[in-house]
Amino acid sequence: METHIFISHSDSDTPWAKELSRHLESYGLQVFLGAGSVFPGANSHLEIGKALEAADAMAVLISPAAADSLYVQQEIQYALGAERFQGRLIPVEVKATQDYPWVLRKLQWIRTDGDAARAGDQIARILQVAGGPDVHAGAR
Length: 140
Fold this sequence. Notes:
The structure is a single chain. By secondary structure, this protein is of the alpha/beta class. The protein has helices spanning 14-25, 44-54, 64-67, 70-81, 116-129, and strands at 4-8, 30-32, 57-62, 89-93, 110-111. Helix content is 38%, strand content 15%. The protein has a five-stranded parallel beta sheet, sandwiched between helices. The protein starts with a strand and ends in an 11-residue tail after the last helix.
């Protein structure tokens, strides 16, 4: 069974999210990048809702722009309310900011120092411990 991960991010963090996505896919994870994964002309709200329902985990990219994004805030609220995301909501600090939901302070953070590959490795390890995909070091 494949693990589906939703990457919640602001539009300005899309290039970083795409790089992270490539690393996660190398572990066999199915990745959904929010509006960036929706085909032009499709109902983006509907497609994002379907992706959230199908997701087994969420990585939320933390940055000043994400802190200001209503969509990122709504996606975090969704994940906090869904039992299947327990232990699988992973804040990933892309750019330092103090403006993030206080509840995320209780979760295991990934501090990237700008390294999407390292973040991808850490997310894969977290998901493996949480009962996620069968991720092996040699799978990449």
